[in-house]
Amino acid sequence: MPSLPMILEPDTLHQHLQDENLLLVDLSGPEHYAEAHIPGAIHVHPRETRGAASPVPGLLPEKAELEQLLGRIGLKPEHHVVAYDDEGGGWAGRFIWLLESVGHRNWSLLNGGRIAWVSEGYPTSTEIPEAPEPTRPALTLDPSTTADLHEVLEAVRAGNTAIWDARAPSEYRGERQSAARSGHIPGAINLEWTRIMDPERNYRLLPEDRLRETLTSLGIEPSKPVITHCQSHHRSGLTYVAARALGYHDVRAYAGSWAEWGNHTETPVE
Asked: Where do the Rhodanese domain residues begin and end (predicted)?
C-alpha cells in the first residue's frame, strides 16, 4: 500500500479502506464503538493500553501484556496502523506511543478521529468485524520513546529539555490537586492538550504552521529534546504524536506523569 502521512485526513482514509495491509484500531468508548465505527475497525478498550498491575496507571504494560494485546488484533510488521478515538486523540495517541515503544513505526492518527468521520458523513458500521487471525509477536521494547522518573530528574537538572505539561492550567498551577502534592515539574511548559485541537474543524489538530508556531513560541522547539506528560499519559498521547508529526526527532513520553511525580516524596515541585 502507498505511504500514508502520520496525520491522516478522513477523505484519504476513505480512499484506502480496502488496502490489504491497513489495520484500523478504534480506541473509543465501547458504547460509541457499538453505535458506529469505521467499517473494519477493531476495538481496543483504552484500559488495555495500561499495565494491569502497576500502581502508576500511565506506565507501559508489561511485555507479555503487550504481546497479548497486539497478538489479539493480529498486528504484523507489514501493517500500517490507523488509530482513532472519540475524544480528540488522547487514547489513539497513547496507542501510537505504545506501537512505537515496540518498534512499530508504520502508523497514522486519524485527524479529528470519530468526531470528524461521523460529522462529515463518512460510512460507519455497527457490524463487529471478524476477529483477525491472532499473531504471536515477539516484541523488543524500544526505550527511546519513554523517559522514566530518573531521566526526567536529570532533564530538569540539565535544563536543556522542553518538558511539555499537557494538563489543564489549574492542575499546572496547583489549584486542582490530583496527587499527594500539586503543582508542576520545575521548568515545565504548560500547553493544555485541548489547545492544539480546533473544535471548529471537528477537533482536528491545528494546521501544521499554527501548531509549529504555537509550540516554538512557548519554547517547545525542534532543536531541543522534548518530554511530554499529563496526569497518566493519556492526554499527552496526543501531544506526543503532534510533536512526532511535526518532525521533532527526540520526543519521549514521561509515562509515569504526575501520578508518579506528584506522589513521590523527593521530586522537586513548583
From this structure: 18-126, 157-270
